């Protein structure tokens, strides 16, 4: 289905989907890990351009400058955020360690948020692989928020529609890097076109041991990490993923 086709899905279609049970079953499958969606990358799905980010956690000092820069860039309301930094603390004093894990939308090659959106408001851009939300089409149903395996989305309390990182399209389209990359004190973030084998991010991904979050989900995240501590990431018996990290996203009252 093309983007244009998707956008022709109206609120009336959405209600009809609900009545027919089709929308509910799709979301339930995605939410509870019942989807049979293939996880194997398909070469035919590769885009001419796919923007991606590499985060070298060895250089991250947990300063949260990236989070603040993002807040300022988009005037993100208090209590929600597009970009944030989680951390893990391990050991017993005096043998302790703290590891940082900057987080944002992964702009997945197979985004589950797109699969469940009943109006086509959220989609993956053909020209650069960025996953976006069309606020004019979003009805605030929160399906995408539940479906995202990375907790990357939230309902914007001011606009009432789904929100998340969009790789700073307004900056990238002018040849600039995203605000979090521009502001990173540690130089830990590299942004670029991972479909271009000559780009800096491609060379770094090729020459370093990199990981992505929850590869078992088959989403093919396009945020890569060097040196990330994934040791607390595990799949529980119900087929859901838990990450035992300290994050504002687990605070009470999160929207
Ligand atoms: S991280 Fe979540 S919101 Fe972002 S593209 Fe992937 S599934 Fe969608
Ligand atoms: S809340 Fe998410 S799933 Fe629902 S219409 Fe908006 S973008 Fe689509
Ligand atoms: S700005 Fe850079 S160094 Fe600071 S928390 Fe963010 S990723 Fe880490």
Structure commentary:
- The chain has 9 helices and 12 strands.
- By secondary structure, the chain is an alpha+beta fold.
- It has helices spanning 3-7, 11-20, 22-31, 65-74, 112-116, 143-147, 169-172, 179-183, 200-207; strands at 51-56, 84-92, 95-103, 122-124, 131-133, 154-155, 162-163, 189-193, 210-211, 223-226, 233-235, 241-243.
- Mean pLDDT is 80; it is low at 1-44, 243-248 and 250-255.
- The protein has one domain (3-35, 47-230, 243-248): Alpha-Beta Plaits (2-Layer Sandwich), CATH 3.30.70.
- The radius of gyration is 18 Å and the shape is globular.
- A 4-stranded mixed sheet has the order 8-1-10-9, with helices on one face. The protein has a two-stranded antiparallel ribbon with strand order 2-3.
- The longest helix is centred in the first third of the chain and has 10 residues, at 11-20.
- The site of one iron/sulfur cluster has 14 residues, from helix 5.
**Proper CATH architecture:** 2-Layer Sandwich
Instruction: Please list the strands of the largest sheet in the order they lie side by side.
Output: 8-1-10-9
- How much of the polypeptide forms β-strand, as a percent range? 15-25%
- What structural class results from the helix and strand content? alpha+beta
Task: Please estimate the helix content.
Answer: 10-25%
Q: Residue ranges: pLDDT <50 for 5 or more in a row?
A: 1-44, 243-248, 250-255
Distance between the termini: 31 Å
Query: Number of DSSP helices?
Result: 9
Rg, rounded, reads: 18 Å
Largest sheet: 4 strands, mixed
Number of strands: 12
Overall tally of structural domains: 1
Average of pLDDT? 80
CATH class: Alpha Beta
What is the helix/strand order? HHHEHEEHEEHEEHHEHEEEE
Bound molecules: iron/sulfur cluster
Shape: globular
CATH topology: Alpha-Beta Plaits
């Amino acid at each position: 289905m093309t983007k244009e086709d998707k956008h022709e899905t109206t609120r009336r279609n959405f209600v009809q989907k609900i009545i027919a049970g089709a929308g509910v079953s799709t979301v339930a499958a995605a939410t509870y890990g019942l989807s049979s969606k293939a996880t194997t990358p398909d070469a035919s799905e590769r885009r001419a351009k796919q923007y991606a980010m590499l985060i070298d956690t060895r250089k991250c000092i947990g300063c949260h400058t990236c989070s603040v820069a993002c807040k300022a860039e988009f005037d993100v309301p208090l209590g929600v955020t597009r970009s944030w930094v989680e951390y893990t603390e391990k050991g017993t004093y005096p043998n302790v360690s703290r590891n940082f894990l900057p987080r944002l939308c992964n702009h997945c090659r197979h985004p589950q948020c797109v699969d469940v959106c009943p109006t086509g408001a959220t989609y993956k851009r053909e020209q650069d692989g960025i996953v976006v939300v069309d606020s004019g089409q979003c009805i605030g149903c929160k399906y995408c928020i539940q479906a995202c395996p990375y907790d990357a989305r939230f309902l914007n309390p001011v606009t009432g529609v789904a929100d998340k990182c969009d790789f700073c399209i307004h900056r990238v389209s002018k040849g600039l890097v995203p605000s979090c990359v521009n502001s990173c004190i540690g130089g830990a973030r590299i942004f670029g076109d991972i479909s271009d084998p000559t780009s800096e991010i491609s060379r770094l991904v090729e020459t370093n041991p990199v990981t992505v979050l929850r590869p078992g989900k088959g989403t093919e995240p396009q945020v890569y990490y060097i040196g990330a501590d994934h040791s607390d990431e595990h799949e529980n018996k119900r087929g859901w993923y838990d990450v035992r990290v300290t994050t504002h996203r687990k605070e009470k009252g999160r929207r």
